[in-house]
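Re-run requested by the PI after the first attempt was lost when the workstation crashed. Everything re-entered from the original request form. Ligand of interest: magnesium ion.
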Amino acid sequence: MQEAHKKALSDPIFSIISDAAEELSLRCYVIGGYVRDYLLNRGIPMDIDVVAVGSGIELAKKVASKLEGKPKVSVFKNFGTAMIKNKGVELEFVGARKESYHRDSRKPIVEDGTLEDDQKRRDFTINALALSLNKNDFGTLLDPFEGLADLDEKIIRTPLEPGITYSDDPLRMMRAIRFATQLGFQIASGSLKAITENKERIKIISKERIVTELHKILQSDKPSIGLGLLHKTGLLPLILPELTALQGIEEIEGQKHKDNFWHTLEVVDNIAMATDNLWLRWAALFHDIGKAPTKRFHKRIGWTFHGHEFVGSKMVYRLFKRLNMPLNDKMKYVQKLVMMSSRPIILSEEHVTDSAVRRLVFDAGNDVEDLMTLCEADITTKNPRKQRRYKNNFKIVRKKIKEVEERDRIRNFQPPISGEEIMKRFDLKPSKEIGIIKEAIKEAILEGKIPNEHEAAYEFMLEMGKKLNLKAN
Ligand code: ATP
Ligand code: MG
């Protein structure tokens, strides 16, 4: 047992910290994520948290003085912490502390404390595990809250009473759900109840912190675990009400539609298997959000969601804005994929024509493969025959995309005839006829009437000129 934990501390950095602590006659421990991830065999984390019984800042300075190249110590006096970047690893030092909270803030009142005080203020038992860096018991695991047992049983539990823990710092609600998702752990029933009871307190947490946790949930292998927990605890309507609005099945005159919330969760899990692209995963999460506001029932045709892609892409903008997410090209990418999300499906249901594929490539540009990945993830039918057919049709679409690519160079389309050339040939000043001709050439290429080549386009331009009664030079 002892030996195994020494292995966790075999990196020379830990001996250096140990020496520094001895020189300052203080005790110190590695705590939190590093210990947890080591015990879970999750690979070596890029940040190491060290808690000192005494001044964490002094310890950091002493450690830095012993390191090659004497790295800079960033001191955060207000928090009583210090950070050193060493060989790509972030070493975070803090003095052991006791914390108490005010109701309206997640900023605690802090006093010096013992190691156990410090472990108590940690969010979860599995994050409160500490390994000694002291000479006399180097590598000993200090586990007053049975975090090791919780690691074994795969349980997220708080060291103290859950009601207080989550109310003190409601970010922990998001963290609990995020860890449950990343690690595939269960949240202890007391915690789940406390999160549900304290859900409204999420309002004191900054949007940025919430989004960071959402990113981590989406980046996990099975995001539906976290999204399902957000739903179950009632946090989801406070964070992403647009998703909650998709929940439920309505039935009128025997006609039902699918539950678009649970469908969306399946799609997100599917896409997580297909890609690590975080923004493509966001697009999957939002691909159907326009369905709630566009839902209608028609006596003859049943349920429709006309224009949900367009409405959904508008909603993406408002959502990003509300969550203080940057309104940059990532947002535009998500909007575009939501906007185009039904296009390949329509293709997959019909006979796939070349011109439909050319139009798809023209509109999607370089994002066409991502769009296909999204659409394949969107297949959640449980009917094996339908599933096979849709998948096969998408295979055909992908093959056609490749063919069209090689032949017609539609992606990032450049018109084969320039406006200048048209003006010169017909002796025109800038005018609407030029736009009409250019558009007609583009259409003819997309429709497959002419190849995407200069010569053919030139002939076509001359014909167009005739139709418009233009005189050629
Ligand atoms: P990861 O780095 O993978 O997100 P982590 O557990 O290392 O996981 P950090 O945010 O790096 O998470 O925090 C380091 C440690 O600080 C945690 O393991 C936990 O002990 C403690 N901690 C972090 N945030 C909180 C919080 N909101 N409440 C209580 N303890 C926290
Ligand atoms: Mg960490």
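Saved to the shared folder this time. The two ends are 91 Å apart (CA to CA).
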